[in-house]
Structure formats: C-alpha cells, structure tokens
Amino acid sequence: MTDLRHVTEDQWREALFRFLRHAMAQRRVDYSDIAQPPSFAGEPKERVALGNKVRRSMYDPGFFLALLAAIGLPGVTLEEVAQFLPKEAAETKAGDS
C-alpha cells in the first residue's frame, strides 16, 4: 500500500470531490437524481445546496455514507480515493518513496 500519511486535508478533500464526481458520472447520476427521497436518506435536499456541500467535501460521516448509498456505491477504499489526489500530492508521494 502506498504511504499516504503526507497528504494534506485539503488534498484529501479535493480527491474526495473528484472521486464522488467520477462515481456519479460512471453511474450517470447527477445531483437532481439524488436530491429527493428516497435516494438521499429520506430528506429532501436542494440540488444546488447538495452540489455545494459535495464540492466543499466538508461534511460529517453520516452525510458521506448517505451520499454513497444515494449514488449506489456499496463502499469505498482509501486507495480508490487516493487515485484522485491532486497532481501536487502525487508528485510529493512519488518523491517520498
């Protein structure tokens, strides 16, 4: 497993946003598809507000898990998200090895 301890919180947020957008695109799901019940934990969400929240990647674990379920992902690994790290994190990772 790659050593990911040097990755900053901001880099993880960017990677998580990229990962989620990729997962949504693969499943042909957009924010309007998951904003309304039953897709998103039974709580209606504004499409724009949901998109902004995902873009910031600053939410609690419950929101993240509800989002995974709404997208149709059974789970995610750290390595899957790490594939979407910004270029500068990947360069640092390669330089540290």
From TrEMBL:
InterPro entries: DUF6471 (IPR045526)
Pfam families (UniProt xref): DUF6471 (PF20075)
Protein name, UniProt field: DUF6471 domain-containing protein
Source organism superkingdom: Bacteria
Species lineage: Bacteria, Pseudomonadati, Pseudomonadota, Alphaproteobacteria, Rhodospirillales
Record-annotated DUF6471 domain positions: 12-73
Source species of the chain: Nitrospirillum amazonense
